Amino acid sequence: MNEFKDMMEELEQADGEEKKLTPKQAQILQAAVEIFAEKGYASSSTSEIAQRANVAEGTIFRHYRTKKELLISIVTPFMAKFMVPFFAARFTRNVFDEPQEEFENLLRTILKDRFAFAAENAPLLRIVLQEMAFHPELQQRFQEVFVKDVYPKFEAALDRLKEAGQVMDRPNGTIIRMIMSSVMGFLVTRFILSPDLEWDDDQEIEQTIAFIMYGLAEK
Amino acid sequence: MNEFKDMMEELEQADGEEKKLTPKQAQILQAAVEIFAEKGYASSSTSEIAQRANVAEGTIFRHYRTKKELLISIVTPFMAKFMVPFFAARFTRNVFDEPQEEFENLLRTILKDRFAFAAENAPLLRIVLQEMAFHPELQQRFQEVFVKDVYPKFEAALDRLKEAGQVMDRPNGTIIRMIMSSVMGFLVTRFILSPDLEWDDDQEIEQTIAFIMYGLAEK
DNA sequence: TTAAAGAGTGAGTGATTACTCACTTTTATT
DNA sequence: AATAAAAGTGAGTAATCACTCACTCTTTAA
């Protein structure tokens, strides 16, 4: 957990700007998140954002030179925070784990942690998924974090799990795709497609863990 | 008489039979698909679509009253075609199957079939995934097809597979989510996120089948 | 106390938007 | 061949867009 906290703090320091917000600036960010999530970036107008934020339209451009800069300043910190625990939390072996429980515990940590985070940031998750497709700047940031940081650590963890006989011997890319599909498929269904259904969250999480674990188990 | 003819025409159009297309109309549809997929619906202008289609802008509105009607006339036939095989293809028991192979064959049919379809219609898949979030009309069409047709047949097939001991006894909604997450996760990764990677498609399909099958197997 | 810097404002601007309409050209029907 | 209907055109339009700028108000610092 120390590792996790350190990384979060580093990130916040690197981004830095989250503390020095003017009240009006915070209102702008909040309104922008809401409206971007509702109508999509391209269909959102700066005038509507200003209106909902109780701010003059010019105030937005005092803090963000363009509408796209507003989007980026919203999305990139979220993207970083969303991905950090994927490689910071439990990808290093926990000495207290029995080897045969390591995979299960890893999955449970990831799922519960990212579930809580997605629950608190559903609109932001929606914005990222929607806008990534059209903004190369966002794709690039994603690449930087995922390909350079998350993926290698994921691979290392998988190699260890394969040696321990907990995961079948398949290409890491394939295995990671399956895990990510299952995790993201759950989060997207839960918080974006059908957020109003009555969910038994703990049960769904446990069953998703089991699904991944048995799907990837050595036969 | 007139009423009857009108009805027939409406029906044929509603069925999505794209036969009576003027050459220029076909050019418009093609250009619209390309540009919607590239920039998203909201960021695409009718003037640009007209330009790429080598058509006057007014011609678009001769055939489609609004820009949104153009989108819908593109997306809904695709949506229907994409979902039909999910309940039409093999959801009824094939008498030649050994019971213990039924699930595997069902998954293989779904995956190979929808893989081929997605390969031929990647831009349309992209448009649907992007625009569904912002257009209630599209969500409604999806509901109509999926909830009323696909889901019930899916459930029936799952109940049979559970009785045959091929699928574990979990809520159908959960199982369907896991299958759809894995299938869509693969298709999205393959054709939208990383279409330019070198893929061993047959191997990926087989491993996805195995992942789902063992993930859902009775323990 | 004062001056400079930063935060906030809202009317104004040129560009772009989806869509219209009067008109011409093509196709279908008799 | 005559005529009507359908297809095609592109200049025109009102609305909206992101963004600017001259100005006021607030905060900071010496």
UniProtKB/TrEMBL annotation, chains A, B:
Q: Which residues bind DNA?
A: 45-64
Which parts of this chain are annotated as the region Disordered? Answer: 1-22
Entry's transmembrane regions: 70-89
Translocase as a keyword of this entry, yes or no, is no
Any Pfam family matching the protein: TetR_N
Which positions fall inside the HTH tetR-type domain?
Answer: 22-82
InterPro entries for the chain: Homeodomain-like_sf, HTH-type_TetR-like_transc_reg, HTH_TetR, Tet_transcr_reg_TetR-rel_C_sf
Keyword list (alphabetical) reads: DNA-binding, Membrane, Transmembrane, Transmembrane helix
Q: What is this protein called?
A: TetR/AcrR family transcriptional regulator
Q: Which organism is it from?
A: Halobacillus kuroshimensis
